[in-house]
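As described in the Methods, two query proteins were run sequentially through the folding procedure within a single session, without resetting any intermediate state between them. The first query and its resulting structure tokens are shown here.
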Amino acid sequence: MTRERIGADEFVDVSTQPETRGIEVIGDAERHGRARDLFFVWAAPGVSILNFTIGATLILLGLEIWQAVAVILVAALLWVFPGIIAASGPASGTSGSVVTRAMYGIIGNKLFVAFVGWFIGAVFLALTWLASSFMGADLLRRVGLSDPVWVPIGVTIVVSAVTIAVAIFGHALILRIYPVMAVLLFVIFVGVSLFILPTVNWGYTAAHPLSGIALWSAITVGFTILASSPLSFINSPDLARYLPRSTKPSHIAAATALGGALPFVVFTIVGVLLATGLKSGAFSAGIDVALFDLLPGWMGPLLVIGVIVNTIALNAMTAYSSSMSLQAIGFKLKRIPAAIIVGVVGTALTIYLVLSSSLLEAANLLLQFLVVVSGPAMAIFVVDVIRRRNVYDGLDLFDDRRGGRFWYTGGWSIPGITALAIGGIATALCLSTDVWTGALSAAIGHIDLSVPVGMTVSALLYALLSRTRLGKEGRL
């Protein structure tokens, strides 16, 4: 195995041409950028109507305003995890879906990427396209286009086409347009927030204040929903991998974490405040409809534009990473055709959800179930970065021969696979949703400890097993 085999043909990372590079290792001579560029890459997807939706959910769960804000602030701390693993991108010069070969083995990683990478990618593509489909369709309904089936499907197809186009142009275009998108989104959503503030019931108290087990159940369920966002971004190395190898990991972590956390905190709190001024019937109609009713006529179209821009920002990033996941699985595809396949799959799932769900129902259910895989996977990745001191060699990661460094036991890393599986089971046992309550959660009054328990179990198992013969690497 030589470095020439894993490097790409000469490629210039510019925003005016599609990015043909996929998971190939980026040479030091081709590295560019600064850690602070990542702040806007993560801020643009974070200025989202989903934050309004999740914030409103905390009030629906029965929390007081101060309790909801406290849960949001604690959940925001989890953004440090995508920041920590992002540094593995520049260290290795390749995508996170290849770096995880160090955790799961050459063959085991294919299963991990196929399930975790695709599952998370497909859910987030569908969930955010769903938001723009509902709101775009509602706006068109107000001007006379009211077909309940074809209008949202049409909005979905148009938005998804633009999203995949951004993913095809790739890294350089993302770096160039995301700062503009972040500023535009911030202005629109601050404007929306200003119209929400007069409706806020600052003296709000829950109709039936919670205490004891019921209170802790609501707090922990809300925390799980909130935690699913930062824990799902296991793709953070993909956006950082072009940075020079000398870039400080602490700077990468700070830019990534702050870019994701700040809009997450601000606009989720706005969602909490929004919910205090709405009647219970407004929730059944949907947060998107409730927002339209609060805003003056001229502001409604601006909000839809904001939702669509945010959708493109989040899903272009997701589709970009998912296209490289297909390559990491082993499909003989260039990155651009892979991105198109991702778009087709995500569009189909979105159309299904458009015809069968409300935004609030889909968001809460999917976000809770995401942590079953995303929490343990994130914990394992963070432990691996720390124990290796962020040292990853691209040549070793691409050496897929029997006996290679990351071949482990028949191509499988027993520590990684075991920690992921048992951590996922522990998460499921502690999860509490409307359609599934784990045995441990039920035993303690529907308190949802899925995130801390699942991540702790996975982290400890992986750290301990990696120190045994089961974690022995080849050619050391």
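Immediately afterward, the second query was submitted; its sequence and tokens are:
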Amino acid sequence: MKNLNIPVGISDFEKIRREGFYYIDKTGLVKELLNPKPAEVTLITRPRRFGKTLAMSMLENFFDIKKNSRDLFAGLEISASEELCSRWMNQCPTVSLSFRQVDGLDFSSAYDMLTMVISNLFNRHRYLLESQEISEFQKTAFVQIASQKATAGEIKNSLILLTDMMQTYYGKKVLLLVDEYDVPVAKANNNGYYEEMLDVMKGLMQALKDNRALGFAVVTGCMKIAKESIFTGTNNFVSDTIADSRLNEYFGFVQREVDQILADGEITDKRELIKQWYDGYHFGDWDVYCPWDVMNYVLELQHNPQAKPAGYWKNTSDNAIIRSFIDYAGGSITRKLEILMEGGYIIQQIDKNLTYDYLHSSEDNLWSVLYLTGYLTQVRSETLNRELPAGSAALQIPNAEIREIFETTVIRWFDDSAKTWNRNHLFAAV
């Protein structure tokens, strides 16, 4: 077997390219976002470990005016679009941040993490303080935020301040890249401080609304939180979810890319095994593999050619939201789970615009969350041969790895929950 230098756990595009790690070319995403012109705000939602963070790193390296990235993109798909590269590559003042690490058991600790993320972002742009064009008032606010001494109001206004200062400095509109935007509110919902964190995130996201300094923005997350919940008033908002087909080629691996990996690694004999375990996701019109699983298994095969497939994806999240649904729903959904684990499908209403405060308001939301976070996928319409009610989807378990998760983790949660269910009605009926 050939060594491919697999970059498991590395989401830094520049590091992957400069240090010779194996890279599946997803640079066509740049052209797709710019064609025919970029939307003011593009929200991309995909399950975890489907390449969102690496994609955002690639976009940052392509657009950021502080970088010189031509050698990083040499030989990749986007480099063939010479006119586009000449116009856009390293031509945009770029703000890039991720909320992945914002977590805490209470609001105070999570807010401290959030202010640290914002502080680190500002410290990367301290050169702005040298400009004679930027007002002393803005510089004072900048220093307060960079030194983690800002008020709550200054934190909420921080992205507007930073983009405004950058436009003044460069004389160009700013690109804003926000990765894992929904992590702070998801963690807050799990730990009981949802309203407080939502208020802060709403303030930060005002940078997407009527911001004269903003050229365009790309935002990623696992779930599409209802627009009125966190993106209130945002105009020209384009959403791309797993039900859409425009960008799904760029998140996850499609069949030709997996075939390329197997050919390059000289392990084509593992094709069917990898397909059985890690394929099966139907995103829009695309059939997609989980890239995290494929890369981890290929890396394992390089160390041990006899290695069996394993569930790499299940260990990358605490799955708290799934557990909370099981505690809430009780035994009413067990029959549907049995159908899924028997290889069948269920038909459910799907809501792609959820709000965390009403997440447990209906059983349908459970299936929506399982679908949006990658535990279930849609059955192909040509396979069904039946008409579905408006807004509903036929859902099934995508592959052997997820089936194993259901057979172990999910069933264990149900067993734990069953011990606490109130059986008084059953006893009274008997």
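The two ends are 64 Å apart (CA to CA). We note this only descriptively and draw no conclusion about the first query from it.
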